[in-house]
Amino acid sequence: MSAPLPAAPLAPLLSPAATAVIGASRNRAKVGGMVLANLLDAGYRGSILPVNPAAAGAGETVQGLTPWPPAATCPTGWTWR
Question: Does the predicted TM-score (pTM) go above 0.85?
Fold first, then answer.
């Protein structure tokens, strides 16, 4: 029987500092909209980066957040919400 792992190695997985939602949607009934809505409604404390090329190109928001075009253009090391 092995000893339990310390919690520290799992912290980035269980409590990430930032999350990108690829396919974030304005429509809370769609999968990308549900994921984004759940993060917002649950009070997620990390940075949220909604990726929605159509909304970004049109200058619109996605559930109150500024969307990003394709994920390849997302910044690395970003920390905003």
Answer: no
| Tokens 């939602």 found at | 21
Count of C-beta atoms within a 10 Å radius of residue 49: 21
Give the span between the Cα atoms of 61 and 69, in whole angstroms.
Answer: 12
Is there a domain that residue 32 lies in? yes
Q: How many domains does the chain have?
A: 1
Amino acid symbol at 16: P
List the domain range (segments joined by +) for residue 67. Answer: 16-72
Q: Are 36 and 66 in contact (CB under 8 A)?
A: no
% of residues, the chain, pLDDT over 70: 81
Range 49-68 average pLDDT = 94
Residue 67 covered by a domain? yes
Alpha-carbon distance 23 to 20, whole Å? 9
What tokens does 17 get? 């500092």
